[in-house]
């Protein structure tokens, strides 16, 4: 029984090799805090753009009726 629990715990851990870390650092930068990594757009900005697009489509539908 303890072996089953240990096996499940090991499967939950996602190990990353040093090569994978180096590759990700090359593609996105070292760290966000020191300014070397590229920041993704803020969630607020993405949601605002999606809402504006949805509102524009909604207004277009009722504009033609």
Automatic annotation (TrEMBL):
UniProt KW keywords: Nucleus
Q: What is this protein called?
A: FAM192A/Fyv6 N-terminal domain-containing protein
Instruction: Write out the annotated subcellular location.
Output: Nucleus
Q: What is the lineage of its organism?
A: Eukaryota, Viridiplantae, Streptophyta, Embryophyta, Tracheophyta
Kindly give the Pfam families that the UniProt entry links to this protein.
FAM192A_Fyv6_N
- Asked if Nucleus is a keyword of the record, the answer is yes
One GO cellular component assignment for this chain's record is:
nucleus
Could you tell me which residue ranges the FAM192A/Fyv6 N-terminal domain spans?
A: 24-64
Q: Which organism is it from?
A: Apostasia shenzhenica
């Amino acid at each position: 029984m303890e072996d089953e629990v240990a096996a499940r715990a090991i499967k939950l851990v996602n190990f990353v090799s040093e090569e994978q870390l180096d590759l990700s650092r090359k593609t996105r930068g070292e760290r966000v805090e020191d300014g070397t990594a590229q920041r993704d757009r803020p969630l607020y900005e993405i949601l605002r753009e999606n809402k504006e697009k949805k509102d524009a489509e909604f207004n277009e539908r009722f504009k033609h009726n």
